[in-house]
Amino acid sequence: MEKQTSNPEENRPDYRSGVLSKINTKFFREVKAKSSIEGGETGEEFTGNLLVPGDSPGNKWYDPYNHATWIELNLTSPREVAMFGLKSANDCPERDPSFFSFYGISETGQKFLLYSASEVEFEERYQWKMFIFNNYHEVRAFPTYFLDICKNKNFDQEGNWGSGTQLAEIALYEPSITSK
Protein backbone atom coordinates (compact mmCIF):
# COMPACT_ATOMS: atom_id res chain seq x y z
CA MET A 1 0.00 0.00 0.00
CA GLU A 2 1.25 3.48 -0.84
CA LYS A 3 1.51 6.25 1.72
CA GLN A 4 -1.60 8.42 2.05
CA THR A 5 -1.23 12.13 1.64
CA SER A 6 -3.53 15.10 1.72
CA ASN A 7 -1.45 16.85 -0.96
CA PRO A 8 -1.54 15.15 -4.38
CA GLU A 9 1.62 17.02 -5.46
CA GLU A 10 3.76 15.28 -2.80
CA ASN A 11 3.53 11.76 -4.23
CA ARG A 12 2.72 12.22 -7.89
CA PRO A 13 4.53 9.46 -9.76
CA ASP A 14 6.44 10.11 -12.93
CA TYR A 15 4.38 8.18 -15.49
CA ARG A 16 6.04 7.81 -18.88
CA SER A 17 7.54 11.30 -18.53
CA GLY A 18 4.19 12.73 -17.44
CA VAL A 19 2.16 13.57 -14.37
CA LEU A 20 -1.35 12.74 -13.21
CA SER A 21 -4.34 14.89 -14.13
CA LYS A 22 -7.79 14.95 -12.59
CA ILE A 23 -10.38 13.46 -14.93
CA ASN A 24 -12.86 16.15 -15.91
CA THR A 25 -16.47 15.49 -14.83
CA LYS A 26 -17.61 15.67 -18.47
CA PHE A 27 -16.11 12.17 -18.84
CA PHE A 28 -18.41 10.73 -16.15
CA ARG A 29 -21.62 9.20 -17.44
CA GLU A 30 -23.09 8.43 -14.01
CA VAL A 31 -22.27 8.17 -10.32
CA LYS A 32 -24.28 5.69 -8.23
CA ALA A 33 -24.26 4.58 -4.59
CA LYS A 34 -25.72 1.68 -2.66
CA SER A 35 -28.00 4.16 -0.93
CA SER A 36 -28.29 7.87 -0.29
CA ILE A 37 -30.43 10.15 1.82
CA GLU A 38 -31.25 12.11 -1.37
CA GLY A 39 -31.57 15.56 0.09
CA GLY A 40 -30.76 15.08 3.74
CA GLU A 41 -31.02 17.69 6.44
CA THR A 42 -29.82 20.45 4.13
CA GLY A 43 -31.99 19.29 1.22
CA GLU A 44 -28.82 19.29 -0.90
CA GLU A 45 -27.14 15.93 -0.10
CA PHE A 46 -27.14 13.81 -3.26
CA THR A 47 -24.95 11.13 -4.84
CA GLY A 48 -24.16 13.44 -7.78
CA ASN A 49 -22.47 15.86 -5.37
CA LEU A 50 -19.50 13.51 -5.23
CA LEU A 51 -18.33 15.05 -8.52
CA VAL A 52 -19.08 18.68 -7.59
CA PRO A 53 -16.22 20.79 -6.20
CA GLY A 54 -17.02 23.00 -3.24
CA ASP A 55 -17.22 23.25 0.52
CA SER A 56 -20.86 24.09 1.21
CA PRO A 57 -22.47 21.98 3.98
CA GLY A 58 -24.94 20.33 1.60
CA ASN A 59 -22.37 19.51 -1.07
CA LYS A 60 -21.90 15.87 -0.08
CA TRP A 61 -23.19 12.33 -0.37
CA TYR A 62 -24.63 10.72 2.74
CA ASP A 63 -25.67 7.08 3.17
CA PRO A 64 -27.59 7.09 6.48
CA TYR A 65 -27.87 3.34 6.88
CA ASN A 66 -25.93 1.02 9.18
CA HIS A 67 -24.23 -1.13 6.56
CA ALA A 68 -21.23 -1.46 4.27
CA THR A 69 -21.77 0.78 1.27
CA TRP A 70 -20.34 1.55 -2.16
CA ILE A 71 -19.92 4.20 -4.82
CA GLU A 72 -19.78 3.37 -8.53
CA LEU A 73 -18.32 5.75 -11.12
CA ASN A 74 -19.31 5.05 -14.72
CA LEU A 75 -17.27 6.83 -17.37
CA THR A 76 -18.27 7.73 -20.92
CA SER A 77 -15.44 5.49 -22.19
CA PRO A 78 -12.66 3.41 -20.57
CA ARG A 79 -9.92 5.55 -19.01
CA GLU A 80 -6.68 4.74 -17.27
CA VAL A 81 -6.68 5.74 -13.60
CA ALA A 82 -3.53 5.71 -11.45
CA MET A 83 -4.79 7.52 -8.34
CA PHE A 84 -8.05 8.47 -6.67
CA GLY A 85 -8.92 11.03 -4.02
CA LEU A 86 -11.55 11.21 -1.31
CA LYS A 87 -12.63 14.43 0.41
CA SER A 88 -14.17 14.39 3.89
CA ALA A 89 -17.51 16.09 4.37
CA ASN A 90 -18.34 19.16 6.46
CA ASP A 91 -19.36 17.42 9.69
CA CYS A 92 -19.67 14.12 11.59
CA PRO A 93 -16.12 12.70 11.36
CA GLU A 94 -17.47 9.37 12.66
CA ARG A 95 -19.07 8.93 9.19
CA ASP A 96 -15.72 9.09 7.34
CA PRO A 97 -14.74 5.95 5.39
CA SER A 98 -11.85 4.21 7.14
CA PHE A 99 -11.53 0.78 5.49
CA PHE A 100 -12.20 0.40 1.79
CA SER A 101 -11.16 -1.19 -1.50
CA PHE A 102 -11.09 0.43 -4.92
CA TYR A 103 -11.72 -1.61 -8.08
CA GLY A 104 -11.64 -1.19 -11.82
CA ILE A 105 -14.50 -3.02 -13.54
CA SER A 106 -14.05 -4.29 -17.09
CA GLU A 107 -16.61 -4.17 -19.89
CA THR A 108 -17.51 -7.78 -19.03
CA GLY A 109 -18.14 -6.92 -15.36
CA GLN A 110 -14.96 -8.46 -13.97
CA LYS A 111 -13.58 -6.64 -10.89
CA PHE A 112 -9.87 -5.89 -10.56
CA LEU A 113 -8.60 -4.76 -7.14
CA LEU A 114 -6.54 -1.60 -7.60
CA TYR A 115 -6.15 -0.38 -4.02
CA SER A 116 -7.08 -1.36 -0.49
CA ALA A 117 -6.82 0.84 2.62
CA SER A 118 -7.46 0.41 6.33
CA GLU A 119 -7.37 2.75 9.32
CA VAL A 120 -7.67 5.83 7.11
CA GLU A 121 -8.28 8.92 9.20
CA PHE A 122 -9.28 12.38 8.05
CA GLU A 123 -7.84 14.86 10.56
CA GLU A 124 -9.91 17.79 9.23
CA ARG A 125 -13.23 18.50 7.54
CA TYR A 126 -13.04 19.08 3.76
CA GLN A 127 -9.67 17.29 3.73
CA TRP A 128 -8.46 15.44 0.62
CA LYS A 129 -6.70 12.08 0.93
CA MET A 130 -5.00 10.74 -2.18
CA PHE A 131 -4.39 7.07 -2.91
CA ILE A 132 -1.83 6.13 -5.57
CA PHE A 133 -1.93 2.61 -6.95
CA ASN A 134 1.16 0.48 -6.28
CA ASN A 135 1.15 -0.65 -9.91
CA TYR A 136 0.50 2.75 -11.50
CA HIS A 137 3.10 1.94 -14.16
CA GLU A 138 0.88 -0.93 -15.33
CA VAL A 139 -2.31 1.11 -15.53
CA ARG A 140 -5.10 -0.19 -17.74
CA ALA A 141 -8.32 1.46 -18.79
CA PHE A 142 -11.68 0.60 -17.23
CA PRO A 143 -15.14 2.02 -18.02
CA THR A 144 -16.24 1.74 -14.38
CA TYR A 145 -14.57 2.29 -11.03
CA PHE A 146 -16.00 1.04 -7.75
CA LEU A 147 -15.28 2.14 -4.17
CA ASP A 148 -16.31 -0.56 -1.69
CA ILE A 149 -16.53 0.98 1.80
CA CYS A 150 -16.27 -1.80 4.38
CA LYS A 151 -16.06 0.31 7.56
CA ASN A 152 -16.42 3.90 8.67
CA LYS A 153 -14.65 5.62 11.57
CA ASN A 154 -17.55 4.88 13.96
CA PHE A 155 -17.29 1.17 13.15
CA ASP A 156 -13.57 1.26 13.98
CA GLN A 157 -14.25 2.98 17.32
CA GLU A 158 -17.61 1.57 18.43
CA GLY A 159 -18.09 -1.64 16.44
CA ASN A 160 -21.16 -0.37 14.57
CA TRP A 161 -21.92 1.93 11.64
CA GLY A 162 -23.44 4.65 13.81
CA SER A 163 -25.26 7.21 11.68
CA GLY A 164 -23.92 6.08 8.30
CA THR A 165 -21.17 7.11 5.88
CA GLN A 166 -20.50 10.33 3.99
CA LEU A 167 -18.04 12.02 1.63
CA ALA A 168 -17.87 15.48 0.08
CA GLU A 169 -16.10 14.52 -3.16
CA ILE A 170 -14.36 11.76 -5.05
CA ALA A 171 -11.84 12.33 -7.85
CA LEU A 172 -10.03 10.10 -10.34
CA TYR A 173 -6.59 10.90 -11.75
CA GLU A 174 -5.16 9.62 -15.02
CA PRO A 175 -1.66 9.71 -16.50
CA SER A 176 -0.92 12.75 -18.63
CA ILE A 177 1.59 11.90 -21.28
CA THR A 178 3.82 14.78 -22.23
CA SER A 179 6.45 14.77 -24.93
CA LYS A 180 9.94 16.04 -24.30
Structure description:
With 180 residues, this protein is mainly β. Helix content is 3%, strand content 41%. The chain has one helix spanning 153-158, and strands at residues 19-22, 28-33, 61-63, 69-80, 83-87, 97-105, 111-117, 128-132, 141-152, 165-167, 169-176. The strands form 3 sheets. A 5-stranded antiparallel β-sheet has the order 2-4-9-6-7. A 4-stranded antiparallel β-sheet has the order 1-11-5-8, with no helix packed on it. A hairpin with a 5-residue loop joins strand 6 and strand 7 (111-117).
Average pLDDT metric: 86
Sketch the topology as an H/E string, one letter per element: EEEEEEEEEHEE
The name of the CATH superfamily reads Galactose-binding domain-like
Rg (CA only): 16 Å
What global shape is seen? Answer: globular
Helical content class = under 10%
What fraction of the residues are assigned to beta strands by DSSP? 35-45%
Distance between the termini: 31 Å
Q: Tell me which CATH architecture applies here.
A: Sandwich
Largest sheet: 5 strands, antiparallel
CATH top level assignment: Mainly Beta
Q: Please identify the structural class as seen in this structure.
A: mainly beta
Count the strands? 11
What is the quaternary state of this protein?
single chain
- Please tell me the total number of domains: 1
Task: Summarize the helices and strands and which ones pair or pack.
Layout: E1 19-22, E2 28-33, E3 61-63, E4 69-80, E5 83-87, E6 97-105, E7 111-117, E8 128-132, E9 141-152, H1 153-158, E10 165-167, E11 169-176
Antiparallel strand pairs: 1-11, 2-4, 3-10, 4-9, 5-8, 5-11, 6-7, 6-9
